[in-house]
User: Fold this.
Amino acid sequence: MYSARDRVDNEEWLAELQTAADRLELDADARSYAVDLFLSSVPESERSKKPAMAASLYAGALIASDGRSQTEVAEAAGVSRLSIQQRWKDVLESAGLEPPSW
Assistant:
């Protein structure tokens, strides 16, 4: 779980997440899940935050049944598809969810 302070400390990344979600035209549920996932597992390193944000966006969209391809999310977030591919399952697992087996 995260605190209100986490939201304030990561305001810049949450704004970037919303911008990417706008580009993807994600619904409110997908955005909400993505924010929760990101804030629940924000990495310490600034360098890792953008890929973590993108992976959270991808996973949030999956949870909300508003899925997009890793490539679409990567383009919208400005990261490589590999960045999402390597992180999205960990994001789900850290939230106590089981990634799909497909």
Observations:
- The radius of gyration is 12 Å.
